[in-house]
Structure formats: C-alpha cells, structure tokens
Amino acid sequence: MHVILTGASSGIGEAIAKEYLSRGASLTMVARRKAKLTELSQGHEKRCHVVEADLTDYARATDFVDGAIEALGPIDVLINNAGVQIVKAAVLTPWEDAERMMHLDLFTPLKLTHHILPAMIARQSGTIVDIASMAAIAPTPGMFFYNAAKGGLAAASEGLRGELRHTGVHVMTVYPGPVRTPMEEAGRKAYVETTAMKLLTPTGDADVLARKICDGVASRRHRIVYPASYGFSRHFPNLTRFILDRMTPPLKALPESTKPRGAAT
Ligand SMILES: NC(=O)c1ccc[n+]([C@@H]2O[C@H](COP(=O)([O-])OP(=O)(O)OC[C@H]3O[C@@H](n4cnc5c(N)ncnc54)[C@H](OP(=O)(O)O)[C@@H]3O)[C@@H](O)[C@H]2O)c1
Known about the structure:
By secondary structure, the protein is an alpha/beta fold. It has one domain (2-183, 203-237): Rossmann fold (3-Layer(aba) Sandwich). The protein is 46% helix and 14% strand.
C-alpha cells in the first residue's frame, strides 16, 4: 500500500507516518524539513520516498507526484495533513500571511486531490483523507482565516465522498479538536489562559489519533472526530457556537478598539 502523507515532519503527521511504517505501508512523506523526514525513514528506506517541498506554493504542489509513483507505485491513500494555523485578531493578520495559509491549508489539498483522483477512479480504488479541524464545525473566535480554510476543506471533503460513492474511491474527513502538537501549543498560548478554557478544551494525543486514522482508512470510516467528546459539537453546532462566542478567552494581542474591559495587554 502506497500512502502519500503531507506534513509528515511533526505532530499528527509524524505520528501517522510512524503508525503506517509500523504497519508495513510504503510512504511518501512531504514537508519542508527534509532532515526530519529522512530521520523518520531510517530503517525503512526501501519503502520510503522523502520529498522536500513548500506546499504554500500551490502552483507547484503536485510536482512531486510523478516521482512518488515512480519510486513506490500507484497511490492508494492520499493524506492531506500539512497545515499551519493563524491565531490572531482578523484585523491584525497581515494579508500575505493569510493568503499563504489559505494556499497551504485549502488550495494545496484540493489541488492534490484533483490531481491524484483520476488515477484512483480509473483503478476503482483509493482513499483520500482530509485532516480538517473542529474549527470547521465550531468556528473559533480568533481564527478568522483558519476557520475559513478548514471549513472549506471539510465541506469539499464531505461532498466528494458522495460524489465518488459508486467509484470504489473513498473519502474520510478528520475533525481533530485540540491535539498535543507544536501547533496546538502555539495556538493555545495566543489566548489569555482561563479556567473555562482549561475545562472546555480536552486535549488529545497524536499517536492515538494516528491509530484511529489508519484504522479508519482500513474500515472506510466516513469521518473521525477526536477527542470523542467533541462529537457533542458535531451534533449540537448551534449550542457550541453560542458557548464559543461567549466563553472563548480573549486573545492576548488585541487591537485597542476591540479590547474587552479587563483583557490582558
Ligand atoms: N494539533 C491540533 O490541535 C489540530 C487540531 C485541528 C486540526 N489540526 C490539523 O492537523 C494538521 C497537522 O497539524 P499538527 O498539529 O500536527 O501541526 P504541526 O505539528 O505544526 O505540523 C504541521 C506539519 O505541516 C507541515 N507544513 C507546515 N507548513 C508547510 C509548508 N509550507 N509546506 C509543506 N509542509 C508544511 C510541517 O512540516 P515542515 O514545517 O517541515 O514543512 C509539519 O509537518 C494540520 O492540518 C492542522 O490544521 C491540528
């Protein structure tokens, strides 16, 4: 089985890479930090293909695909995982940063899927996995552009599953809530820490999620919500939004005009 995994050098992607390697899969790993990918491939060189690529450059996001097929054969699973998160007041976010994030988190996954799908349909087999976010279901104040990117990816992913229903190709949409990774840590630090935040944000483990994703691909699950307690938000999105609007702590950096009384400076 040949799995293409973007963002394999850290966090959830790194955990998925380790899990698939332990299950004997062949793996194309894509990220900017080549040294980290090479380290992960040690001991499995014959079934690993390492690609150093900056996927914000979505015009060239599919350049590596032919080389991957040449190295490890037809693609069985595409995991669109690479992503960055901007946790910042909308008006303080430089447009260029937002644009780069939209390219990486939304355009590149859509482009990779669009590029790889025809061969999967022709072979009547394959799985696309999109790592979206709970932000797609319960948009979080303070993540203006990230909410848009993940909402777009999740909607595309959920709709594509039905479109491909009779083709033999499957789509799985993954909605992580907070999962301990460098991204999660940086995002959390952008907010003023409150007791409500601690209580309302159970945080998961990347290795556990990786196992669920690999099992989910094997059993053709439609979607994964992890940690499971966030299933509440999927079933009660309006109530979740009501709570998030009122309970999300203020960002540490706020424009003067929008600062609530008592917010940290
Ligand atoms: N952790 C969470 O709480 C959480 C919650 C919801 C959704 N997610 C989603 O899960 C996915 C993985 O996040 P994570 O928490 O594991 O984050 P992470 O530890 O920061 O890892 C991000 C991965 O994306 C890659 N990446 C970043 N910019 C890239 C670029 N320009 N080109 C190519 N690759 C790039 C990074 O590799 P390089 O830096 O080496 O390029 C790294 O491998 C993301 O899509 C994220 O939005 C995470």
